[in-house]
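Hey, can you fold this?
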Amino acid sequence: MYNYQDIRTIHLEITQKCQAACPMCDRNQNGGALNPHINLDELTLEDCKKIFTPKFISQLKKMYMCGNLGDPIVADDTLEVFEYFRHYNPDMTLSMNTNAGARDNTWWSQLAKTFGDNGYVIFSVDGLAETNHLYRQNVQWDKVENAMNSFIGAGGRARWDYLIFEHNQHQVEQAKALSEQIGFESFIAKKTGRFITATSQKKEKHQAVNRKGQETTELKKPDEKYQNKEFSKYDQLVEKYGSMDNYYDVVPINCKVAKEKSLFITAEGLALPCCWTAGRMYKWWHKDPKIEQIWDHIDAVGGKQFLDARNGLDKVFATGIFDKIANSWNVSGCNNGKLKVCSMKCGQEFDPFSAQFV
């Protein structure tokens, strides 16, 4: 797929911790109980120094924090890790995705100073005071506004990503106007792909619950003009191939991260090609998470310990796991070894992820 020397982008999941309880996040069960397969792992500054040597950092063009399960603002060493990267590469781009519901003015101001002109924050805020918390459960609006104003007020560059549901579609233009007032560089009305499930089924709604398991908001698709355009392709693909599984069996893979020369590091310190391959490791609805295909590749190189980048990123590459994953794309059929998540996320005929932004 690529070599250690080829990597130009790092996608870093610094923590599995989060103060929010978003109903469509694998960190929790529909916004309720914690995923039983995760341990709330988090990387420290010292961990990151072991993974990313100064020489390696110097070859990078970008490092961003997002991930599958946590929010970077909750981790203890997020700011210090960004400062470490900036020290050894003043020209690289630094970035972070966040729900913005934590940290004080000083922290946000320091982040803006560390990023400078070569960095930005993506604020994932899905509504205004009356609606943002309906999806971003437990996120307090006053903290969101404070984070936005503190970061941008200190010179930080920012983008607002707004996931559109039925309950917040009426506020899209109002939120866009607010973004311009605060000083955001851009506002993206994001056409969510979350109404296609992890098992590739279409759904019209999703019931959220709270930590006590009580029903909260019933999340529904927005009006057609705000829907992900790939939804319309779903039935066409089923008609063409007989089923989505048949499509995944044969579709050519256009790997997004290979093209970007990007590498994903989990909060456990594991190196995998992308957040999507890593995201199959701990699906909460499986009694045994190792039922997922990605574990075949992990176990084939000796288990998780051989993917621990804290022992040396070069050693992870030496396992051959990246080439093994890429080689699976040439296999006929997911049941025969083709990695299905790659077909789902990078199959050339169906791309709900990219369609969110257009």
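Oh, and this one too while you're at it.
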Amino acid sequence: MAVDRDLLVGFHAVVARLRNHPESVREILFDPARRDARLRDVMSMAERLNIRMSQADAKRLDGLAGGERHQGVVALAQTVPRRLELEDVLQEAKEPPFLLLLDGVTDPHNLGACLRTADALGVHAVVVPKDRSAGMSPVVAKVASGAAESVPLIAVTNLARAMDQLKEAGVWLYGASEDGTESLFEVKVGEAAAWVLGAEGQGLRRLTREHCDVLVRIPMMGQVESLNVSVAAALCLYETRRQRTPTTRGGGRP
């Protein structure tokens, strides 16, 4: 496909684009053998938005999806220009910045899962290096289940330089590391915070570690020694959101 086109695979990715940028969708291909409520909803949205729906057999959809599970629906769309500047995110955030930085995460499934979690917990952007990292793709968009439309994915030339930029803006950098000096159970996350995680197995690169303000370990109670990066990101981001969210405690027994 042309470089200015997106291929959206599966219901979550297609519906998210229809909701957020319907003007970019050129055509939706669907398997006529599938006639359930989810497809009817997509067809209803497409009709309301005057977007063409075309039948395509499973073999053609399989080819377009490149082996990804398409659920009987694929959309052809123009690429939506994405905000790529870190400065924009810092200036437009309506609360102290809350970011996720991924160092060397090359698996698109992990990146998609991180975007999905980032959306759920109100992260303002996910930052990745341009090299040695997964970028936006149909696989990432599908796994993200719509979050690729709502969470900016910012690719930077130099991750360490971006970390310095965040520090200058008053953002504290928390690196997740198995030999961290503080436990996730005990660390007090600052108001403006960015979590920095590396790929499973390799972890954070030396220069990235050195740019972190604090290294935090996730306590492990069982036999495994490490977590998938998307799972580790979910734990760290959830703890940060928990600390940011005020709670009201009542008296008496629950």
